[in-house]
C-alpha cells in the first residue's frame, strides 16, 4: 500500500513509500482510509519544529485526522463491524501517556491504518468522510478550548486571533455557544471575510493602531471576557491581553516558545485577568461534535478547502505551509 511517511533520520523528509498492509492485532481493526486531514502540526513535524515523543524507530506514517471504513477485524473484536463508517480519535492512552496517531505511531496518510477499537467513533451516514476526518483536532481543539478551558458563556464578548484551520472553526463554535459579540483578528483580508461569513460580528486587522479602542467600542466599553490565540504568535498575545476586560481570560492554543509580554501588568492584576494554556482535546469532545453534527447544529462543508490524492501529500503540505488560497483544511484521499 501507499503511505506518506516521515523519515526522521539525519535528513528529515516526507516520502511516499510502498509498505505492506498491516495486520490488526487483538483489540484492533484495519481501517480502509477514505480521508485524512493535513494539519500545521504535520508541517511542523516535517520542518523539524515538532518531534515525536514516544515513537519507536525513526519512520512514521503521518496523519492524525482520519476517517474511513472498518475493513478487517482483529482477533476477538466484536465492538465493530466490517463496513462501519468511522472517524478515529487523534490519539490513544497507553500506560498513562497519550500517544498521538501519525506522530508516535502510524497514522492515516495511507491506504490503510490500524486503529484500537476504543478510538473508533461511528459517524452519521450523511457526514462525508472529508468533513469527518478533521473533527479530531481541527474542530475538537477549538471546541475544548472554548468549552473546557475558557468556559465561554452565552452573551460573553469574545476575541479570536488567527482565522486559519483552528480559528475558523473557533468562530463557528463560538457562534453556536451564543458568544456575542465575536471579534475576529487576522492580517489576511480573505481570512477576515471568512470570519464574518462563519459568524463573527466584526473582523479587524492586527496592524490597525485603533484595534484596542475598536474592541472596547464594540463591547460597550467592557472589553473581552475571553480571547483566543489560535495563531501561536507572541505579538498576538500581547495585543489580546490589552483587549481583555475585568476578569478576562486569554487562552493560548496556537503553540510557540516565544516569551509572553504583558503590557500593563498592574492592570492585569488589578482586573483579575488570566492566561490559560490549552492543548488538544479529550475523546468526549470529539463524540460531542459528532453528535452536534448529527443533529445539524454544526456544518463543516465550508472547511474543506481542497481534496488531493494521497500521492500529492507533499503538494498539500507545501500549500498549507505557504497559506496558498488560505486553506482551512486540505484533505488527502488515498
Ligand atoms: Zn491536527
Core attributes:
7-stranded mixed β-sheet; 6-stranded parallel β-sheet; alpha/beta; 18 strands; 334 residues; binds zinc ion; single chain
Describe this structure in words.
The protein has 334 residues and is an alpha/beta fold. The relative contact order is 0.15. It is 28% helix and 28% strand. It has helices spanning 40-47, 129-132, 135-149, 165-177, 189-197, 211-218, 234-241, 265-270, 283-294, 313-321, and strands spanning 2-7, 13-18, 28-38, 59-61, 66-73, 85-88, 91-94, 97-100, 112-116, 120-122, 158-161, 182-185, 202-204, 224-229, 244-252, 274-277, 304-309, 329-333. The strands form 4 sheets. Strands 3, 5, 6, 9, 10, 17 and 18 form a 7-stranded mixed beta sheet that branches. Zinc ion binds at residues 39, 41, 64-65, 137-138.
Give the overall pLDDT as a whole number.
96
Low-confidence stretches: none
**Which band does the percent of strand residues land in?**
25-35%
Report the total helices.
10
Number of DSSP strands?
18
The value of Rg in angstroms is 20 Å
Summarize the helix and strand pattern as letters.
EEEHEEEEEEEHHEHEHEHEHEHEHEHE
Q: Major β-sheet, in short?
A: 7 strands, mixed
Bound molecules: zinc ion
Helix content: 25-40%
Task: State the distance separating the first and last CA atoms.
Answer: 10 Å
Structural class: alpha/beta
Shape: globular
Amino acid at each position: 500500500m501507499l503511505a506518506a511517511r516521515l523519515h526522521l533520520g539525519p535528513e528529515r523528509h516526507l516520502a511516499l513509500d510502498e509498505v505492506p498492509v498491516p495486520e490488526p492485532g487483538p483489540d484492533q481493526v484495519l481501517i480502509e482510509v477514505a480521508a485524512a486531514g493535513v494539519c500545521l502540526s504535520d508541517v511542523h513535524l516535517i520542518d523539524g519544529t515538532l518531534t515525536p515523543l514516544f515513537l519507536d524507530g525513526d519512520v512514521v506514517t503521518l496523519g492524525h485526522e482520519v476517517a474511513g471504513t472498518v475493513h478487517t477485524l482483529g482477533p476477538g473484536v466484536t465492538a465493530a463491524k466490517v463496513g462501519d463508517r468511522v472517524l478515529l480519535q487523534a490519539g490513544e492512552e497507553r500506560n498513562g501517556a497519550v500517544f498521538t496517531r501519525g506522530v508516535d505511531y502510524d497514522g492515516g496518510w495511507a491506504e490503510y491504518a490500524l486503529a484500537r477499537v476504543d478510538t473508533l467513533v461511528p459517524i452519521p451516514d450523511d457526514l462525508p468522510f472529508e468533513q469527518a476526518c478533521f473533527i479530531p483536532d481541527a474542530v475538537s481543539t477549538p471546541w475544548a478550548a472554548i468549552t473546557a478551558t475558557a468556559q465561554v458563556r452565552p452573551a460573553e464578548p469574545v476575541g479570536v486571533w488567527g482565522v486559519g484551520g483552528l480559528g475558523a472553526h473557533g468562530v463557528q463554535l463560538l457562534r453556536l455557544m451564543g458568544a456575542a459579540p465575536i471579534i475576529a483578528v487576522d492580517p489576511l483580508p480573505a481570512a477576515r471575510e471568512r470570519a464574518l461569513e462563519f459568524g463573527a460580528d466584526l473582523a479587524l486587522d492586527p496592524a490597525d493602531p485603533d484595534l484596542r479602542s475598536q474592541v472596547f467600542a464594540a463591547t460597550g466599553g467592557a472589553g473581552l471576557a475571553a480571547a483566543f490565540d489560535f495563531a501561536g504568535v507572541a505579538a498576538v498575545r500581547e495585543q489580546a491581553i490589552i483587549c481583555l476586560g475585568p476578569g478576562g481570560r486569554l487562552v493560548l492554543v496556537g503553540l510557540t516558545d516565544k516569551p509572553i509580554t504583558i503590557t500593563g501588568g498592574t492592570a492585569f492584576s488589578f482586573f483579575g485577568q488570566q492566561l490559560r494554556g490549552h492543548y488538544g482535546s479529550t475523546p468526549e469532545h470529539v463524540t460531542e461534535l459528532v453528535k452536534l453534527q448529527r443533529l445539524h447544529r454544526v456544518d463543516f462543508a465550508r472547511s474543506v478547502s481542497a481534496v488531493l490524492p494521497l500521492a500529492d501529500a507533499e503538494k498539500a503540505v507545501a500549500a498549507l505551509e505557504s497559506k496558498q488560497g488560505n486553506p482551512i483544511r486540505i484533505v488527502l484521499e488515498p
